[in-house]
Structure formats: C-alpha cells, structure tokens
C-alpha cells in the first residue's frame, strides 16, 4: 500500500516518522471516547488514535508486558464447634491477596477490580467474589482442598492461579508470578505503584521526583492539565503540526512513542523542555482564539 493511501482511518503522507489523525467520534455509552487523554497521578499524557471507541482500549497501549508477583496470605485456626467429620477439628480460615513491590514489600492489589475464589463444591456458596483489597475470603470447615482464584483486571480479563488450602501451619504464604499483557494506560498507572515499568528506564521513585521538579518549573507559566485538554481538541491539521513541533524540539529526556501500526502517538508532557511546553501552549491558545 502506498504511504499516502488511506488505511484504517488515517493516512501517512511524507514523513515515515509521523502518523496523521482523523477526528474521534464518541461512543454513546462512554464519555472516555470524547477526550483521548489519560491524566496520571504523575503526569498528563495525551494520546491520539484514529479509530478509538469504547471497544478499543488499544488506544491506550503504552508499554510492553509487565510482570508482578501476587502474594496469597492464608491463616487458619481451630474453632469451638462440633466436628462435622470424626477426627477432624473445625477450622476458621481466610485468604488475602497482595502484590509485592520491587523491594519485596506487601502492597494492596489495587490493579484488580475483583477476585473470585472457586472453592470446593461441598460449600453452600462455592463461588465467592470480593471487590475490594485485600479481597479477604473467610470460611469455616474441616477439610483441606485445592482451589482456583480468578484475579480480574477488567470485567472480562482475568488471571487464574491455583492455591492449596492446607492446615499444616497457622499462617503461610504463596507467591505467583503473573504477566499483564498489553496493559491499558489506566492499568499501567495502578501497576506503577508496585514497581517499575519496562521501557521507562527510570526507577519509579526517582521518576516521581523528576516529575515533581518539572511540575514546579512549569506550574507558574503553563497549566499542564489545560494544555493536555487543549491539544486533544485540535483539528487534524493542527495535530500534525503539534507532532512535528514535538519531533523537532524534543530533548533527550522527552518520552514519546509513535505506534504507526496502531496509528497512535504518545507523549509525556512533563518530559518536554520548557521552551517546547511554552511553544505548544501558545499554539493551542492561538488556535482556540483565532488570533
């Protein structure tokens, strides 16, 4: 296909490095489609996509696969209830779900929207769902058994791990390494709280410090939230100019990602040089006012 030929809602004339973009049509069920902006706790990032809609979370595709260690903490104790099976005392047991950060410390598993425990079928309620960390599952019984636990990052996307419920110790831990494939921007931000993100090249804590320094340098002259909001409202031709301006004036510290296959361009505004931030701000104001 010729580089200037239309393809999946966008064309790429001229430069091999720069995608072009069409307007975005909001999906009636999601206000997220109106503004392709993700503002993280660390920094605003704006994303352009020619085909973004409710079903295409890929517009937020940012990084490679991310690995995290899930920690299951199980506790059990004897309780004063008549045994249901001779020779087997009644037990009260509970399981909680955590993530381990880079230092091996327990962190809330906030990246999961819900956790489903699939217990032994002899339980009256063998499928138990919890929607808030630490996703504590607590029950009573006399027997040990194997179970599966489903960890959901969305209503449909899940990771399934196996767990051995046993009474050998009053408390024990089990670790499971899982991989988040093609995580959305929102999921990346949640995972950032528990460790480094592949491809960023900077340890999480240091990155936050650098961002805060950048905030202080730019906060007095440019409102970065308004800049991000203004950028995604620009017309298609204006967006091309923005991408070209960033391409021509970025520094070595600037974070950008151009995914030609997906028709996406990502940039972290807080990694732009101050002169470029001011340049983009002036450009947005000019287009808004027509001056």
From TrEMBL:
<dbReference type="Pfam" id="PF03366">
    <property type="entry name" value="YEATS"/>
</dbReference>
<feature type="domain" description="YEATS">
    <location>
        <begin position="62"/>
        <end position="194"/>
    </location>
</feature>
<feature type="region of interest" description="Disordered">
    <location>
        <begin position="1"/>
        <end position="26"/>
    </location>
</feature>
<dbReference type="InterPro" id="IPR055129">
    <property type="entry name" value="YEATS_dom"/>
</dbReference>
<keyword id="KW-0539">Nucleus</keyword>
<dbReference type="GO" id="GO:0006355">
    <property type="term" value="P:regulation of DNA-templated transcription"/>
</dbReference>
<dbReference type="GO" id="GO:0000785">
    <property type="term" value="C:chromatin"/>
</dbReference>
<dbReference type="GO" id="GO:0005634">
    <property type="term" value="C:nucleus"/>
</dbReference>
<dbReference type="InterPro" id="IPR038704">
    <property type="entry name" value="YEAST_sf"/>
</dbReference>
<protein>
    <recommendedName>
        <fullName>YEATS domain-containing protein</fullName>
    </recommendedName>
</protein>
<dbReference type="InterPro" id="IPR005033">
    <property type="entry name" value="YEATS"/>
</dbReference>
<feature type="region of interest" description="Disordered">
    <location>
        <begin position="198"/>
        <end position="217"/>
    </location>
</feature>
<dbReference type="InterPro" id="IPR027353">
    <property type="entry name" value="NET_dom"/>
</dbReference>
<dbReference type="InterPro" id="IPR038336">
    <property type="entry name" value="NET_sf"/>
</dbReference>
<dbReference type="Pfam" id="PF17035">
    <property type="entry name" value="BET"/>
</dbReference>
């Amino acid at each position: 296909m010729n580089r200037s030929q239309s393809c999946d809602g966008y064309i790429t004339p001229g430069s091999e490095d720069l995608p072009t973009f069409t307007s975005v049509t909001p999906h009636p069920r999601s206000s997220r489609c109106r503004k392709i902006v993700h503002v993280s706790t660390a920094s605003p990032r704006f994303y352009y996509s020619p085909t973004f809609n409710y079903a295409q979370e890929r517009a937020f595709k940012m990084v490679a696969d991310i690995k995290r260690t899930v920690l299951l903490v199980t506790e059990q104790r004897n309780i004063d209830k008549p045994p249901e099976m001779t020779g087997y005392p009644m037990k009260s047991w509970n399981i909680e779900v955590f993530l381990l950060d880079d230092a091996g410390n327990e962190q809330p598993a906030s990246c999961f929207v819900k956790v489903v425990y699939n217990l032994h079928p002899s339980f009256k309620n063998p499928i138990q769902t919890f929607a808030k960390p630490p996703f504590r599952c607590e029950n009573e019984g006399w027997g040990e058994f194997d179970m599966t636990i489903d960890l959901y990052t969305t209503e449909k996307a899940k990771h399934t791990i196996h767990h051995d419920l046993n009474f050998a110790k009053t408390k024990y831990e089990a670790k499971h390494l899982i991989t988040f494939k093609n995580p959305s921007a929102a999921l990346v931000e949640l995972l950032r709280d528990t460790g480094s993100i592949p491809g960023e090249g900077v340890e999480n804590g240091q990155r936050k410090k650098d961002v805060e320094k950048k905030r202080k340098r730019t906060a007095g002259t440019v409102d970065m939230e308004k800049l991000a909001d203004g950028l995604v409202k620009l017309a298609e031709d204006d967006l091309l100019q923005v991408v070209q301006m960033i391409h021509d004036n970025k520094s070595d510290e600037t974070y950008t990602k151009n995914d030609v296959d997906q028709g996406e361009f990502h940039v972290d505004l807080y990694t732009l040089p101050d002169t470029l931030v001011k340049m983009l701000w002036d450009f947005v104001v000019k287009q808004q006012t027509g001056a």
